Amino acid sequence: MDGTVPPNHPNAAPDEAGLKMARARVGLVLRHPFFASLALRMPIKADPTCRTAWTNGRMMAFNPDYINSLTPEQVQGLAAHLVMHPACGHHLRRQGRDRSDWNRACDYVINGILLDAGLELPAGHLFHDRYRGASAESVYRLLRDDQHDEENPSGEEEAARLEDEHRSEEEHDQGDGDGQGDQETDEDEDGPSDPGLSGEVRDDPGDRAPGESVPQRIDWQRAMVQAALNARDAGRLPAGLERLVTDAVAPRLCWRELLQRFILRSARSDYSWLRPNRRHLHHDLYLPSLANHQLGGIVIAIDTSGSIEEDQLQRFAAEVGTVLEQCPATVHLLYCDMQIVRRDRFQPHDPPILIRPAGGGGTDYRPVFTLVDRDGLQPDCLVYLTDLECDLFPERPPVYPVLWLHAGSGETVPPFGEVVRLPALEPVSTLP
After folding, report:
1. Out of 140, 183, 224, 342, which could bridge 358 as a Cys pair, Cβ 3.0 to 4.6 Å?
2. Does residue 281 form part of some domain?
3. Is 274 in the same domain as 417?
């Protein structure tokens, strides 16, 4: 024995813990470039006062003793866990919620993604399959609801709890003479700040964190997109992360732009001899050119269950009309609640599309897709305007692309297609 303390020994020096953290970030580069790209953006520092590790979106801090108790693979998982918090905006979204339960909810949201990516997390990490794909806010509500019964115990349970608390207070007052009872910890009245033992998220400190000469804000959405592009080029972007990045970037784009992109992307491209390819004429070669934006037909389905406002319907119709000016197409307009209640057809030369609501019963998405198949419409794409408060979908996805334009408060996730949220009507401004 040469007396050297192993790197994972609890008594290893803080310098060794810092080196271990640095190596963990570098180790992510080859196996997990997405997380590495984000982790390398933040400085790291030792913080013996914290329980495990934390981030506020500006830095990663860690307890050296805790880091030295982990394997190198677990430290990599912890580093990835820390960067996922600000990448998801958790450091900006707590809004006065209980700190411990907020960390618990955020852990449940991101740990599934990390485990699916093949990372190893420290023992005690939080994971449950029921929370896959959920938001931190929705998981927080579920956790608080689950605690409701515990906060309202029966009379006998309450008496036993008070007796236990009294006994604990007496033992705490007596102490054991080592002075540890006066030490400050990172746990407050909210309970453990890192219940998942994988690194906590703390609130963003504001315009300037303590010790900063200039604010060290990071544009996390832009950083996440760049990290995703780098990982995709390397062929190492897990599917769960690709969906997460898409959801994070979508709000930056106006729903009108997303609708336009979807329809134009569905347009067929073909070669035409009517317009020769000019790039080859000087070689005396008469070749066809590529004609883009040719739409054979599209289907627009309107959920007439009654939760979509009239103004939203007409605004949607106007936007579709604007897109079709660029690539005219036959439009099959279907109104559906539990069944098809109305059907209109618009040719490219017809007046602008006008939506005339009909029906108003329950909701079933299947009749629209059944009619498309039965009548052999073969659309280039289908746009379904709905509140997503129904789970009756076709058993199999169609062969054509589908866009669900989400208007309302429903939270159903369609089993196929893309989803774009139609925002609530903006108030009319009195400013010039």
Report:
1. 342
2. yes
3. yes
Instruction: Measure the CA angle with vertex 68, ends 63 and 74; round to 5°.
Output: 95
* Measured distance CA(231)–CA(80) in Å, rounded: 14
Residue 169 lies in a domain: no
Whole-angstrom distance, CA of residue 287 vs CA of residue 281: 8
Phi, psi of 311 (to 5 degrees): -65, -35
Domain-ending residue, one of 206, 234, 249: 249
In which band, very low, low, confident or very high, does the pLDDT at 69 lie, cut at 50, 70 and 90?
very high
User: How large is the average pLDDT for residues 164-169?
Assistant: 48
Q: What is the pLDDT of residue 354?
A: 74
Mean pLDDT value across residues 350-359: 72
Per-residue pLDDT averaged across 353-373, rounded?
Answer: 85
Domain annotation covers residue 95: yes
Task: Let me know whether 80 and 205 are in one domain.
Answer: yes
Determine the Cα–Cα distance for residues 313 and 303; give it in Å rounded to an integer: 10
pTM of the complete model: 0.52
Q: CA 324, CA 4: separation in Å to the nearest integer?
A: 73
| Residues 63 and 53: beta-carbon distance below 8 Å | yes
- Report the C-alpha gap between 387 and 64 in whole angstroms: 50
Together in a domain, 198 and 316 = no
CA distance 125 to 115: 10
CA distance linking residue 420 with residue 385, whole number of Å: 10
218 and 95 in a common domain: yes
The region that residue 79 occupies, defined by phi over 0 for left and psi between -120 and 50 for alpha, beta otherwise, is alpha
Q: Please report the sign of the dihedral spanned by the C-alpha atoms of residue 410, residue 414, residue 417, residue 418.
A: positive
- Phi-psi map region of 67: left, alpha, beta (phi>0 left; psi -120 to 50 alpha): alpha
User: Can you state the angle between helices 14-31 and 72-87, rounded to 10 degrees?
Assistant: 70
Q: Which residue has the higher pLDDT, 374 or 331?
A: 374
In degrees and rounded to multiples of 5, residue 240 shows phi and psi of -60, -40
Task: Tell me how far apart the alpha carbons of residues 71 and 87 are, in angstroms, rounded to a whole number.
Answer: 25
> Alpha-carbon dihedral of residues 263, 269, 272, 278, nearest 10 degrees?
100
Q: What is the mean pLDDT of residues 134-162?
A: 69
* Any domain includes 155: no
Asked which of 230, 249, 268 is the last residue of a domain, the reply is 249
